[in-house]
Write a structure and sequence with these properties.
Blueprint lengths: L1 H50 L2 E7 L1 H10 L1 H5 L3 E7 L5 H8 L4 E6 H11 L3 E9 L3 E4 L13 E5 L2 H13 L4 E2 L12 E3 L5 E5 L13 E4 L1 H7 L7 E2 L6 H4 L1 E7 L6 H10 L2 H11 L4 E2 L2
Parallel strand pairs: 1-2, 1-3, 6-9, 6-10
Antiparallel strand pairs: 3-12, 4-12, 4-13, 5-10, 5-11, 7-8
Helix pairs in contact: 2-7
Length: 293
């Protein structure tokens, strides 16, 4: 009986030892595996977050807008944003593409033009930020100066509503014409009440204005198209760079309503409104484009 008790005790002791060893053997690798799993998961998550690149499509006129956007690509890449610049050569398609969702933002217009576009097309596009101002300028064609205009001379002006009115207001300031009282951004050649030199106005798409200079006496051209055509240095006179026009007609980043709070859009604005971009604009365009931030 005693021997049986001893054998039973020994068996139980051996069983407990084996069980403890077995548990210990399983616990150590399991513990190591469980500890490693969260670290691996966190590392992968961190790599995914830092490596995830967002593509931001921005429509722009070739110059100076696309050139300015090109200068901030490296900055946005550091924020994991790949900037894709979609160039447009007119003033209608960029807003249509934005409204349709084909692009995320555009950069080519001023706020009065955007507001007029919204009103006429039932769109809901807004300004995310103002970036620069392009003084509207008078450029020589067959006439060497404003004073050299002959009777019956021709002047080409943009045919889009706000820029045409802006051109007429500039010509009024130069004494070429006089508009009826209350002239504003809705003025057209029909509002001219005094035209002492019987000037003929050629209304055409803004992008085509540099091309017609050989056929007209003068042309009033938007700064971006003058830069693109390489004639910015030939400007005779411009709108006052210190005037209210510089604020009212500042070129903006336009987005769909509500998208101005998107992180990518905010990063885009932050990059554009930097000291580096201000320096780039001032050095490259020498006064035909000026930063407003």
């Amino acid at each position: 009986m005693k021997n049986n008790k001893k054998l039973l005790a020994l068996s139980m002791a051996l069983a407990l030892t084996l069980t403890a060893a077995a548990c210990g053997g399983k616990t150590e690798p399991a513990s190591s595996s469980e500890a490693a799993a969260p670290e691996s998961s966190q590392a992968e998550s961190s790599e995914a977050a830092s490596g995830e690149t967002v593509t931001l499509k921005v429509g722009a006129s070739p110059a100076p807008h696309a050139e300015i956007l090109e200068s901030i690509k490296p900055v946005l890449e550091q924020e994991s944003i790949q900037l894709e610049i979609v160039e447009f050569t007119d003033y209608v398609l960029p807003n249509k593409a934005l409204d349709a969702g084909d692009i995320d933002a555009n950069y080519f217009q001023h706020l009065p033009y955007l507001e007029n576009f919204n009103q006429e097309n039932g769109t809901d596009l807004v300004s995310a930020a103002a970036i620069h101002f392009e003084p509207l300028g008078v450029y020589p064609g067959k006439a060497a100066s404003v004073d050299a205009l002959a009777d019956g001379a021709s002047i080409a002006v943009p045919n889009d509503p706000t820029n045409e009115a802006r051109a007429l207001l500039l010509l009024q300031k130069l004494g070429v014409i006089k508009l009826k009282d209350g002239a504003n951004l809705e003025s057209t050649p029909l509002d001219i009440v005094e035209n002492p030199k019987n000037i003929k106005f050629e209304e055409m798409e803004a992008a085509q204005l540099p091309n017609v200079l050989p056929d007209v006496d003068l042309a009033v051209i938007n700064g971006n198209y003058a830069v693109s055509a390489g004639i910015a240095d030939k400007v005779l006179t411009t709108e006052d760079k210190e005037s209210e026009a510089a604020k009212e007609f500042a070129n903006i980043i336009a987005v769909r309503a509500g998208d101005d709070t998107r992180p990518e859009i905010q990063k885009l604005v932050e990059a554009l409104q930097s000291e580096d971009v201000a320096k780039f604009i001032n050095e490259k365009y020498n006064g035909t484009v000026i930063p407003v931030f």
